[in-house]
């Protein structure tokens, strides 16, 4: 499908092999992400969790955009992990009630985790530039404060839980303990690249 779409994009133009491959790769990524999104949100709709899934997912993505973190090794693994993180986990905690103090405590732990460990690179995408890491850390902290504040101010208790869950999932993806448990390289920018 990606090949057909890419050929359609370039139907009236002559294009070299490298450019075609780059565009085709982008189309493949787009199609894979759309497919994953459909699967996740279809599962959420079937369980009556559409709004909860959306809030968890958006909270996660808002923080992840600057803090990065682990990725699944395969597209299938990513899809399964996404269904578990954004649909199944929220399904089991949707009725949990937390006091304001518990929300503040959990929020503080999430913020501390982000402040210490963000941004977190991967073996494929090490963050070599120290200035960029510093800038991304500041942005990650800001994103986290914003997301947690919005969650805390939300008028519905279920939203507090969903925002915390999204932020907690993202903070887990950058934590070195998670990297160690999954046997993945951490602080890849420190490794010798020669």
UniProtKB/TrEMBL annotation:
Top-level taxon: Bacteria
Residue stretches spanning the membrane: 38-63, 75-93, 99-119, 164-182
E.C. code: 3.4.-.-
Compartments, record wording: Cell membrane
Keyword NAD: no
Name of this chain's protein: Putative AgrB-like protein
GO cellular component: plasma membrane
InterPro entries in the cross-refs: AgrB
Top EC category: hydrolase
Family: Belongs to the AgrB family.
Signal peptide (residue range): none
UniProt keyword annotation of Iron-sulfur present: no
Record key words, sorted: Cell membrane, Hydrolase, Membrane, Protease, Quorum sensing, Transmembrane, Transmembrane helix
HAMAP family: AgrB (MF_00784)
Organism, scientific name: Listeria booriae
Membrane topology value: Multi-pass membrane protein
Taxon lineage: Bacteria, Bacillati, Bacillota, Bacilli, Bacillales
GO molecular function: peptidase activity
Functional description taken from the UniProt entry: May be involved in the proteolytic processing of a quorum sensing system signal molecule precursor.
